[in-house]
Design the sequence.
């Protein structure tokens, strides 16, 4: 277990749900090389859509540049976990 502030994470790059956070639904302790960053992502109470749906495709198109940034981007984790 890795502790960051009040939260505990199972490891680096392992997202977890944050039901008690007021606005964000997930958090991940992202690590790329020596850089470690706490990233919160996803709107509380909102679910993604099935692959191939118009809503799913719109999200991926709208955030394509940010998803491509990799593990240090909230869009990357939202795409992976929620969409």
Sequence:
């Amino acid at each position: 277990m890795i502790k960051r502030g009040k939260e505990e994470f199972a490891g680096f790059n392992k997202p977890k749900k944050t039901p008690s956070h007021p606005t964000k639904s997930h958090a991940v302790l992202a690590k790329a090389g020596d850089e470690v960053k706490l990233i919160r992502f996803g709107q509380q109470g909102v679910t993604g859509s099935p692959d191939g749906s118009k809503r799913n495709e719109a999200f991926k198109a709208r955030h394509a540049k940010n998803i491509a940034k990799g593990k240090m981007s909230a869009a990357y984790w939202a795409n992976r976990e929620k969409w």
Notes: The helical segments are 54-62, 64-67, 74-81.
